[in-house]
Here is the input.
Amino acid sequence: MMGNLAGNTDFSLPAWIGALIGTIIAVAIYVPGIRAFERQQRAQSGPMTLEQRKAFEDKLSVMRRLILGADIAILAVAGYWLGAALSGMRG
Here is the structure.
């Protein structure tokens, strides 16, 4: 274990590797997932004026960022926790 700075926070190498793997998985899931989401949203939107299309694209941009952020946060934390748990089992 590398150290314990505050409370139960574990800064071990396996935990950080788990977080990295979780982040990589999050991005791998995000790409096909966001394409399906966008395709569905575009199919439901129908014909729009130029202003409506710009507003729609702006909303999609915000949704993409929110989904990616949540995806990375959840899976990186899960990977960190799993790495920390597995390193604790070893020793």
About this structure: The mean pLDDT is 87. The chain has one domain: 16-90.
